[in-house]
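Late entry, evening session. Most of the bench is empty. Finally got around to the prediction I had been postponing all week. Sequence below, unchanged from the version circulated by S.P.
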Amino acid sequence: MSAVTHAPEPAQPTVGLLGATRALARRDLKRAQSMPAVTVQSVVFPAVLLVTLLAVFGTTVGELDGTSYVQRITPAMIISGAAFGSLGAVTGLLEDRTSGFFDRIRLAPFDRPGEHGFTALALARSVSEHIRVLVATFCITALGYAFRFRFEAGPIKALAFFALAMVFGACFCWIGFALAARASSMEAVVSPVSGMFLILLFLSYGMVPLEAFPGWIQPVVRVAPSSVMMLALQRLSSGGAWVGPVLGAFAWTIGISAVFGALTIRGLTRSTRSPA
Protein backbone atom coordinates (compact mmCIF):
# COMPACT_ATOMS: atom_id res chain seq x y z
CA MET A 1 0.00 0.00 0.00
CA SER A 2 1.58 3.21 -1.09
CA ALA A 3 1.98 6.11 1.34
CA VAL A 4 -0.30 9.06 0.85
CA THR A 5 1.60 12.23 0.08
CA HIS A 6 0.25 15.72 0.57
CA ALA A 7 1.12 18.59 -1.69
CA PRO A 8 2.81 21.41 0.20
CA GLU A 9 0.60 24.39 0.92
CA PRO A 10 1.38 27.39 -1.25
CA ALA A 11 3.45 30.01 0.51
CA GLN A 12 1.55 33.10 1.59
CA PRO A 13 2.56 36.03 -0.60
CA THR A 14 4.60 38.64 1.16
CA VAL A 15 3.70 42.31 1.31
CA GLY A 16 6.23 45.01 0.54
CA LEU A 17 6.78 48.21 2.46
CA LEU A 18 4.52 50.28 0.19
CA GLY A 19 1.62 47.85 0.38
CA ALA A 20 1.92 47.54 4.14
CA THR A 21 2.02 51.31 4.56
CA ARG A 22 -1.08 51.76 2.40
CA ALA A 23 -3.07 49.15 4.32
CA LEU A 24 -2.08 50.51 7.73
CA ALA A 25 -2.80 54.10 6.66
CA ARG A 26 -6.36 53.11 5.69
CA ARG A 27 -6.76 51.54 9.11
CA ASP A 28 -5.56 54.71 10.84
CA LEU A 29 -7.91 56.95 8.84
CA LYS A 30 -10.91 54.75 9.65
CA ARG A 31 -10.04 54.82 13.32
CA ALA A 32 -9.60 58.61 13.31
CA GLN A 33 -13.12 59.00 11.89
CA SER A 34 -14.52 57.20 14.92
CA MET A 35 -12.60 59.35 17.44
CA PRO A 36 -14.41 62.65 18.19
CA ALA A 37 -11.37 63.86 20.14
CA VAL A 38 -9.38 64.09 16.90
CA THR A 39 -11.93 66.47 15.39
CA VAL A 40 -12.06 68.52 18.58
CA GLN A 41 -8.28 68.88 18.82
CA SER A 42 -7.74 69.43 15.09
CA VAL A 43 -10.61 71.78 14.25
CA VAL A 44 -12.92 72.71 17.14
CA PHE A 45 -10.25 73.83 19.63
CA PRO A 46 -8.31 76.03 17.15
CA ALA A 47 -11.57 77.38 15.71
CA VAL A 48 -12.85 78.45 19.15
CA LEU A 49 -9.45 79.92 19.99
CA LEU A 50 -9.37 81.82 16.69
CA VAL A 51 -12.76 83.43 17.32
CA THR A 52 -11.89 84.19 20.94
CA LEU A 53 -8.53 85.80 20.15
CA LEU A 54 -10.06 87.86 17.35
CA ALA A 55 -12.77 89.13 19.70
CA VAL A 56 -10.39 89.94 22.57
CA PHE A 57 -7.14 90.99 20.89
CA GLY A 58 -8.04 91.63 17.25
CA THR A 59 -7.92 95.43 17.38
CA THR A 60 -5.20 95.75 20.03
CA VAL A 61 -2.63 93.44 18.43
CA GLY A 62 -3.40 94.74 14.96
CA GLU A 63 -2.45 98.24 16.09
CA LEU A 64 1.01 97.07 17.25
CA ASP A 65 2.36 96.53 13.75
CA GLY A 66 -0.43 97.82 11.55
CA THR A 67 -1.41 94.41 10.17
CA SER A 68 -4.72 92.57 10.09
CA TYR A 69 -4.85 90.23 13.09
CA VAL A 70 -6.87 87.62 11.23
CA GLN A 71 -4.04 87.32 8.69
CA ARG A 72 -1.71 86.55 11.59
CA ILE A 73 -3.86 84.33 13.75
CA THR A 74 -5.31 82.04 11.05
CA PRO A 75 -1.94 80.43 10.16
CA ALA A 76 -1.18 80.19 13.88
CA MET A 77 -4.38 78.25 14.50
CA ILE A 78 -3.63 75.94 11.57
CA ILE A 79 -0.28 74.97 13.10
CA SER A 80 -1.92 74.72 16.53
CA GLY A 81 -4.63 72.37 15.23
CA ALA A 82 -2.00 70.27 13.46
CA ALA A 83 0.03 69.89 16.65
CA PHE A 84 -2.78 69.20 19.10
CA GLY A 85 -4.68 67.04 16.64
CA SER A 86 -1.72 64.67 16.49
CA LEU A 87 -2.49 63.59 20.07
CA GLY A 88 -5.21 61.31 18.74
CA ALA A 89 -2.73 59.42 16.59
CA VAL A 90 -0.21 59.39 19.43
CA THR A 91 -2.65 57.78 21.87
CA GLY A 92 -3.64 55.34 19.12
CA LEU A 93 -0.02 54.26 18.77
CA LEU A 94 0.24 53.67 22.51
CA GLU A 95 -2.99 51.66 22.48
CA ASP A 96 -1.61 49.48 19.69
CA ARG A 97 1.46 48.77 21.81
CA THR A 98 -0.65 47.58 24.75
CA SER A 99 -3.35 45.69 22.81
CA GLY A 100 -1.19 43.06 21.14
CA PHE A 101 -1.45 44.66 17.71
CA PHE A 102 2.34 44.79 17.40
CA ASP A 103 2.51 41.03 17.89
CA ARG A 104 0.29 40.67 14.84
CA ILE A 105 2.57 43.05 12.95
CA ARG A 106 5.48 40.70 13.66
CA LEU A 107 3.51 37.76 12.25
CA ALA A 108 2.27 39.64 9.18
CA PRO A 109 3.62 38.48 5.80
CA PHE A 110 5.98 41.41 5.22
CA ASP A 111 9.20 41.01 3.28
CA ARG A 112 11.18 41.63 6.45
CA PRO A 113 8.69 41.63 9.37
CA GLY A 114 10.91 43.17 12.00
CA GLU A 115 12.01 46.02 9.75
CA HIS A 116 9.16 46.55 7.31
CA GLY A 117 6.41 46.02 9.87
CA PHE A 118 7.36 48.86 12.20
CA THR A 119 8.65 51.11 9.43
CA ALA A 120 5.34 50.70 7.59
CA LEU A 121 3.46 51.39 10.82
CA ALA A 122 5.34 54.66 11.37
CA LEU A 123 5.01 55.74 7.74
CA ALA A 124 1.29 54.93 7.74
CA ARG A 125 0.78 57.16 10.76
CA SER A 126 2.62 59.94 8.96
CA VAL A 127 0.47 59.55 5.82
CA SER A 128 -2.78 59.64 7.80
CA GLU A 129 -1.52 62.67 9.73
CA HIS A 130 -0.79 64.57 6.49
CA ILE A 131 -4.35 63.92 5.33
CA ARG A 132 -5.79 64.98 8.71
CA VAL A 133 -3.78 68.20 8.74
CA LEU A 134 -4.85 69.08 5.19
CA VAL A 135 -8.55 68.61 6.02
CA ALA A 136 -8.19 70.65 9.21
CA THR A 137 -6.35 73.39 7.30
CA PHE A 138 -9.26 73.74 4.88
CA CYS A 139 -11.74 73.95 7.76
CA ILE A 140 -9.81 76.59 9.73
CA THR A 141 -9.08 78.62 6.60
CA ALA A 142 -12.78 78.61 5.74
CA LEU A 143 -13.55 79.96 9.20
CA GLY A 144 -10.86 82.60 8.76
CA TYR A 145 -12.51 83.67 5.51
CA ALA A 146 -15.67 84.42 7.44
CA PHE A 147 -13.60 86.97 9.39
CA ARG A 148 -11.96 88.41 6.25
CA PHE A 149 -8.85 86.30 6.04
CA ARG A 150 -7.69 86.47 2.42
CA PHE A 151 -4.94 85.11 0.18
CA GLU A 152 -3.44 88.42 -0.78
CA ALA A 153 -0.33 86.96 -2.45
CA GLY A 154 -2.11 85.25 -5.34
CA PRO A 155 -3.46 81.79 -6.22
CA ILE A 156 -0.09 80.04 -6.67
CA LYS A 157 1.02 80.95 -3.19
CA ALA A 158 -2.42 80.02 -1.90
CA LEU A 159 -1.89 76.48 -3.21
CA ALA A 160 1.58 76.48 -1.69
CA PHE A 161 0.00 77.61 1.58
CA PHE A 162 -2.16 74.48 1.80
CA ALA A 163 0.59 72.13 0.64
CA LEU A 164 3.15 73.48 3.06
CA ALA A 165 0.67 73.67 5.96
CA MET A 166 0.13 69.95 5.47
CA VAL A 167 3.87 69.21 5.35
CA PHE A 168 4.81 71.50 8.23
CA GLY A 169 1.93 70.55 10.51
CA ALA A 170 2.25 66.79 10.16
CA CYS A 171 5.82 66.73 11.47
CA PHE A 172 4.66 67.39 15.04
CA CYS A 173 3.20 63.89 15.31
CA TRP A 174 6.70 62.42 15.42
CA ILE A 175 7.43 64.11 18.75
CA GLY A 176 4.52 62.31 20.38
CA PHE A 177 5.21 59.06 18.53
CA ALA A 178 8.77 58.95 19.89
CA LEU A 179 7.40 59.13 23.45
CA ALA A 180 4.52 56.72 22.79
CA ALA A 181 6.97 54.14 21.44
CA ARG A 182 8.53 53.88 24.89
CA ALA A 183 5.99 55.15 27.44
CA SER A 184 4.23 52.83 29.87
CA SER A 185 1.07 54.90 30.34
CA MET A 186 -1.12 57.43 28.56
CA GLU A 187 -0.33 60.13 31.12
CA ALA A 188 3.38 59.79 30.43
CA VAL A 189 2.74 60.81 26.82
CA VAL A 190 -0.22 63.18 26.70
CA SER A 191 0.81 65.54 29.52
CA PRO A 192 4.36 66.34 28.36
CA VAL A 193 3.37 66.53 24.68
CA SER A 194 0.41 68.82 25.41
CA GLY A 195 2.60 71.04 27.56
CA MET A 196 5.24 71.25 24.86
CA PHE A 197 2.68 72.18 22.22
CA LEU A 198 1.21 74.88 24.46
CA ILE A 199 4.65 76.40 24.92
CA LEU A 200 5.27 76.32 21.17
CA LEU A 201 1.90 77.96 20.53
CA PHE A 202 2.32 80.88 22.91
CA LEU A 203 6.08 81.21 22.45
CA SER A 204 5.65 82.30 18.84
CA TYR A 205 4.87 85.47 16.96
CA GLY A 206 1.90 83.82 15.36
CA MET A 207 -0.03 85.19 18.33
CA VAL A 208 1.59 88.63 18.72
CA PRO A 209 4.43 90.49 16.94
CA LEU A 210 7.97 89.64 17.97
CA GLU A 211 8.39 93.12 19.45
CA ALA A 212 5.68 92.40 22.02
CA PHE A 213 7.92 89.84 23.77
CA PRO A 214 10.57 90.84 26.33
CA GLY A 215 13.93 91.45 24.70
CA TRP A 216 15.68 88.57 26.47
CA ILE A 217 13.36 85.94 24.98
CA GLN A 218 13.00 87.36 21.46
CA PRO A 219 15.95 85.31 20.04
CA VAL A 220 14.22 82.12 21.24
CA VAL A 221 10.86 83.17 19.81
CA ARG A 222 12.46 84.12 16.50
CA VAL A 223 13.89 80.65 15.84
CA ALA A 224 11.18 78.50 17.48
CA PRO A 225 9.74 75.99 14.98
CA SER A 226 6.19 77.23 15.54
CA SER A 227 7.26 80.83 14.82
CA VAL A 228 9.12 79.93 11.67
CA MET A 229 6.28 77.81 10.32
CA MET A 230 3.63 80.39 11.14
CA LEU A 231 5.68 83.16 9.54
CA ALA A 232 6.10 81.09 6.37
CA LEU A 233 2.32 80.63 6.11
CA GLN A 234 1.73 84.31 6.86
CA ARG A 235 4.05 85.38 4.05
CA LEU A 236 2.43 82.95 1.59
CA SER A 237 -1.03 84.29 2.39
CA SER A 238 -0.37 87.98 3.04
CA GLY A 239 2.70 88.66 0.90
CA GLY A 240 6.22 89.70 1.76
CA ALA A 241 9.59 87.95 1.64
CA TRP A 242 8.74 84.27 1.83
CA VAL A 243 11.81 82.30 0.68
CA GLY A 244 13.74 82.54 3.97
CA PRO A 245 10.78 81.61 6.21
CA VAL A 246 9.76 78.72 3.94
CA LEU A 247 13.31 77.32 3.86
CA GLY A 248 13.52 77.69 7.63
CA ALA A 249 10.21 75.88 8.06
CA PHE A 250 11.42 73.07 5.80
CA ALA A 251 14.61 72.79 7.84
CA TRP A 252 12.62 72.41 11.05
CA THR A 253 10.21 69.94 9.42
CA ILE A 254 13.00 67.73 8.09
CA GLY A 255 14.91 67.92 11.35
CA ILE A 256 11.94 67.04 13.56
CA SER A 257 10.76 64.25 11.24
CA ALA A 258 14.22 62.71 10.85
CA VAL A 259 15.23 62.79 14.52
CA PHE A 260 11.93 61.82 16.11
CA GLY A 261 11.00 59.46 13.26
CA ALA A 262 14.19 57.47 13.83
CA LEU A 263 13.55 57.46 17.58
CA THR A 264 10.00 56.22 16.96
CA ILE A 265 11.02 53.26 14.80
CA ARG A 266 13.86 52.38 17.16
CA GLY A 267 11.57 52.59 20.17
CA LEU A 268 8.87 50.44 18.57
CA THR A 269 11.38 47.78 17.61
CA ARG A 270 12.98 47.67 21.06
CA SER A 271 9.77 47.84 23.08
CA THR A 272 8.30 44.81 21.28
CA ARG A 273 11.47 42.76 20.88
CA SER A 274 11.02 39.22 22.09
CA PRO A 275 13.30 38.22 24.95
CA ALA A 276 16.24 36.03 23.97
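Two things to note before I forget:
The two ends are 46 Å apart (CA to CA).
Residues 80 and 201 are 6 Å apart (CA to CA).
Will write this up properly tomorrow.
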